[in-house]
Write a structure and sequence with these properties.
- The N and C termini lie far apart (106 Å).
- The protein is mainly α.
């Protein structure tokens, strides 16, 4: 009887009159009596049995999506049925522990979806970086293998290499010039060190002679003459040291910066030449093989790589040619000035011409450091 009543209640329709009030059906009294009868039966049965029956009723009860609302018009008897499935609201779930339905909002679901989307985005970014690194390592390994193969072939005389005879001769001249200039730089530094020690010795000897001239009245004049001579030689020696240091600094800049920069460009040019010959040999080997679809695709890819490395080789060859030209002009200009300075300073010093030595320093804008200029000030020592 309970099942028939509940099924009837699940499928019933609620009429609404034109004023918006619910009407009274003939079946309302019977339904109310049946509900009262069911309540009295539940009171007589134990609380545990009642709870279990109530859970069963709520589980197998009417589905909210299957009920409908019947509304009547103001001016007619036509009725409209509005399915409740079209009315959107929060989802509910049944909790048998508390015998009630609990609404479930979509906030947790949205949070879960957003966090999963963020994790998927981070994972895709990490995967993309790993793929790029693997691809770069693969290209580097392939390029290294081809260049090593080409280098070994050239060394054993089995491979051909691209040679620019005029440019190779200029490069060899530059390397020989750099070795000779490095020798000049080494000897000039040795001369500077030896002459610096001599000037320091002359300075100490002049101080000693001056002290003895004060303590030896019978040899005061002799010690005084020698003290003045050593002080004059020390002063001229410091002027010569200034000129030689300027000479050494200019030669060092020319050798270890200007020439070294050109040689670095030459090294890049030689590496580009090796890569160009390696990909050229690879293209020639593929061209001599079969001409099927796979081989043609490989030949096309090799042709593209060959063109790329050819352009790189030609660009660096042009850079080397330009740098060699400017280096030669700069070398002549710098060495002309520095050799003239070195000759005039050495000649004036050993000729004892103090005035000419000072004029040489002024001609080349050489300023001597005052004594003690290399020492830090008392404030910097704190």
């Amino acid at each position: 009887m309970t099942d028939s009543i509940m099924s009837k209640a699940a499928t019933m329709e609620i009429p609404i009159n034109s004023n918006g009030d619910t009407g009274t059906l003939p079946e309302d009294d019977s339904l109310e009596q049946a509900a009262k009868l069911q309540w009295s039966l539940d009171e007589k049965v134990g609380s545990s049995r009642g709870t279990r029956d109530l859970q069963q009723v709520m589980v197998s009860g009417p589905n909210l999506n299957e009920t409908s609302i019947v509304s009547g018009g103001y001016g007619g008897t036509a009725e409209g049925i509005i399915p409740t499935s079209s009315i959107k609201g929060p989802a509910v779930r049944y909790n048998p522990e508390f015998n009630k339905r609990i609404p479930v909002t979509g906030f947790g679901s949205n949070m879960h979806h957003s966090s999963s989307n963020l994790s998927m985005t981070a994972e895709e970014a990490t995967r993309g970086v790993a793929v790029e690194k693997l691809e770069s390592v693969r290209k580097w390994g392939l390029n290294t293998y081809k260049c090593t193969k080409q280098m070994i072939s050239e060394r054993f005389g089995r491979g051909s290499r691209t040679v620019d005879l005029e440019l190779e001769a200029q490069i060899e001249v530059l390397r020989d010039t750099k070795r000779k200039y490095e020798n000049v730089l080494r000897l000039a530094r040795a001369l500077t060190n030896h002459f610096y020690n001599m000037v320091q010795t002359q300075h100490a000897l002049g101080d000693t002679f001056a002290d003895l001239s004060q303590k030896s009245p019978e040899l005061r004049d002799e010690f005084g003459y020698n003290a003045e001579t050593q002080k004059l030689l020390c002063k001229n020696g410091e002027n010569l040291l200034g000129a030689v240091n300027f000479f050494v600094s200019s030669i060092n800049t020319l050798v270890n910066k200007t020439m070294e920069d050109t040689l670095m460009t030459i090294k890049l040019y030689e590496n580009a030449r090796l890569e160009f010959d390696a990909y050229r040999s690879d293209l020639e080997e593929l061209s001599m093989g079969p001409r099927d679809a796979v081989a043609m695709a490989r030949i096309e890819a090799a042709q593209q790589q060959y063109q790329v490395h050819k352009e790189k080789y030609e660009r660096l060859r042009s850079d080397v040619t330009i740098k060699l030209k400017f280096l030669e002009e700069n070398k002549v200009k710098v060495m002309h000035k520095q050799l003239l300075l070195f000759h005039n300073a050495i000649s004036a010093y050993f000729a004892g011409n103090q005035q000419q030595l000072e004029q040489t320093l002024n001609q080349f804008n050489i300023k001597l450091r005052p004594p003690g200029a290399d020492k830090p000030s008392w404030l910097e020592e704190q």
